[in-house]
Design a protein that fits this description.
heterodimer, A: 232 residues, alpha/beta, Rossmann fold, 29% helix, 29% strand, globular, B: 385 residues, alpha+beta, 2 domains, 10-stranded mixed β-sheet, 12 helices, rod-shaped
Chain lengths: 232, 385
């Protein structure tokens, strides 16, 4: 069953007189439980595609349907509610809030939901257990290693059990060994049913994804399903 | 985790930023409190000092048929006995409900006497209060105070060639010229001042007073009320306010008060500007953080709430600290700045007002940065990552 349906989206950035087409009439379908890697050179449009799919960046034209909801037809604040309910984000450089401890960072997405403090703590502790960081929950981000920070960021993205997680260069700041551990964690979460869409430059990460989409010059150049021949 | 816990943790763990914002607010509020406390106390002290100089109320007997005068009060030249006040009226004035607002009561008896064949006006006064009331008086000789002391007007002293230390015999009684007034350029130059009781004896006006000058503190009590109370206490008297003295006093005090308000307002505006600039810089530094919140699904109102909660806390704590620091500063600096012995009290009402104003200033000055933060496009904010 398709979770995301992208129909003819384009994104044009205007800077004075100049127009830059970041995405050009992209069609895309992503199934529930998919693990998609978006590959492409810098400036290819993959990050723009990620923010558009993530309900953060309205396209200049076209529609994005997630769970049959045309997300850019939602008013701004309803779209924020949609992100809260459907989407978890993992950013480059982790983007943990520096003045909050690991568990407080994980609890952040719950701050705008109707959970009691006790429920929030339990949910956050559970996901920290899942990412193997329950013993460091009281530490501030600068007291954690890069890999540990990435795990906190993952825990934060999944704490309110969204069906969909977007990850932007999740291993970009990590060494190979830690990067592999993180990718295995993603793989394990995906096996539990989480749909993951990941932007990456690292070809080694592709082996963990079920599907790879190459983006170039604002268009989908080709894609590859794990275990299938490369399609153009 | 709630939105306010995010704000509190942001302040608690970003200590340098928090201290800077707090410092801005504390300095602004402390300066306002210090200035306000000192100027308010100075106002009161200045007003009291002003009230002690010269009389602002005149109590005279209800009488007509007047010809000779001093201080705007006339006495009859004829032998006809006019209505007089009595020594007892001094007590009545000193016991009115607003007696605490009475600074000095200076009774006087006036009468004609003769010296070496010349008619002179003798004024019986209570020297200690008279000298306090006439702070502008300067004289040569000793401070008069004894029952046989005289204070001669400059013209009288010159006319009869008298200097301090000389003797004068008036109506068979020997007096000592304790002092001679420097030239005043007023009718006082032609008067002889003597001890009140001695003058009453000499003028055959035992226990009688021609008029009473009163210096009243008008800061906490309208002068009209004091007048009304004296009129009730001394029904045979005519009580009038010296309008010019009261008006001048009020003008000076009002100018001083307006000046202190203006300075306080300027300082408050500068404080608000410091808080606003600090908040704007804080929001600007936190662009990516706000982008992360928005990506997580925080609404604009949630971002607005976080920023305003921080500002509210800064205002609340800054106001409280500013009040305490301001009062302590005022207590320390007041004697130097005001050059007078003034008392700075801990004023709970002022404390509550300062905390309230600081919180409102904190919220208002952060409203713009908070709106800017809430309006941040999440995709744009995340570009800062």
């Amino acid at each position: 069953m398709s979770l995301i349906n992208v129909k003819g989206i384009s994104k044009i950035y205007r800077s004075g007189e100049e127009e830059v087409t970041a995405l050009n009439k992209v069609d895309l379908t992503i199934e529930e439980g998919d693990f998609v890697a978006l590959m492409g050179p810098s400036g290819s449009g993959k990050s723009t595609l990620l923010t558009i799919l993530g309900a953060l960046n309205p396209p200049s034209q076209g529609n994005v349907l997630i769970d049959d909801i045309d997300i850019y037809k939602l008013p701004v604040e309803r779209r924020a509610d949609f992100r809260s309910a459907y989407i978890g984000f993992i950013f480059q450089q982790f983007q943990l809030i520096p003045y909050l401890t690991a568990i407080e960072n994980v609890m952040l997405p719950l701050a705008i939901l109707k959970h009691s403090h006790g429920e929030q703590l339990e949910m956050a502790q559970n996901v920290l257990d899942k990412v193997g960081l329950s013993n460091k929950s009281k530490r501030l981000p600068n007291q954690l290693s890069g890999g540990e920070q990435e795990r906190v960021a993952i825990a934060r993205a999944i704490v309110n059990q969204p069906p969909l997680v977007f990850a932007d260069e999740p291993t970009g700041s990590l060494d190979t060994k830690t990067g592999d551990e993180i990718m295995r964690l993603f793989q394990s979460l995906n096996k539990e049913g989480l749909t993951i869409i990941m932007v990456t430059h690292n070809e080694e990460n592709l082996s963990y994804a079920k599907r790879t989409i190459w983006v170039r010059d604002g268009q989908i150049e080709r894609e590859h399903l794990k275990g299938a021949a490369v399609s153009f | 985790m709630r939105l306010d816990s995010i704000a509190i943790n942001s302040l608690r763990r970003r200590k340098v930023k928090m201290v800077f914002m707090l410092l801005g607010m504390v300095i602004a509020m402390a300066t306002v409190v210090t200035l306000f406390s000192i100027t308010t106390a100075m106002n009161s002290e200045l007003a009291d000092t002003f009230d002690e100089i010269g009389a602002n109320i005149m109590v005279t007997p209800k009488s007509d048929n007047l010809s000779l005068s001093y201080g705007g009060v006339s006495i009859p030249a004829s032998t006809e006995q006019p209505a007089m006040l009595t020594n007892n009226d001094i007590i009545k004035i000193n016991t009115i409900p607003n007696k605490d607002n009475i600074a000095f009561v200076a009774p006087k008896v006036l009468g004609l006497t003769e010296f070496q064949g010349n008619s002179l006006m003798l004024v019986g006064v209570d020297f200690p209060y008279e000298l306090k009331l006439k702070k502008w008086w300067t004289y040569q000789g000793d401070k008069p105070g004894a029952v046989d002391d005289l204070l001669l007007g400059n013209k009288v002293a010159r006319e009869f060639d008298k200097i301090p230390g000389d003797n004068m015999i008036i109506k068979g009684k020997e007096f000592k010229v304790a002092a001679v007034l420097d030239e005043q350029g007023t009718e006082e130059d032609g008067l002889i001042f003597a001890n009140l009781l001695t003058a009453q004896d000499l003028l055959n006006k035992k226990n009688q007073l021609s008029f009473i000058e009163v210096a009243a503190y008008c800061t906490t009590c309208p002068i009209e009320q004091i007048i009304s109370e004296i009129e009730t206490g001394v029904p045979n008297a005519k009580v009038t306010a010296l309008a010019e003295a009261v008006r001048t006093r009020q003008q000076i005090i009002d100018r001083f008060t307006n000046f202190s308000y203006a300075v306080s307002l300027v300082v408050l505006l500068i404080g608000a500007l410091v808080v606003m600039l600090t908040m704007m810089s804080s929001v600007s530094e936190r662009t990516s953080e706000i982008g992360v919140y928005r990506a997580m699904g925080f609404r604009r109102s949630n971002i607005f709430e976080i920023i305003l909660t921080e500002a509210g806390i800064i205002g609340l704590v800054g106001g409280l600290l500013g009040y305490i620091v301001g009062i302590l500063l005022a207590k320390t600096l007041a004697p130097t700045i005001a050059q007078m012995a003034i008392t700075i009290p801990w004023n709970p009402l002022m404390g509550v007002t300062v905390v309230f104003v600081a919180t409102v200033v904190g919220l208002l000055s952060s409203a713009y940065p908070a709106v800017q933060a809430a309006k941040l496009d999440p995709a744009e904010a995340l570009r800062h990552i």
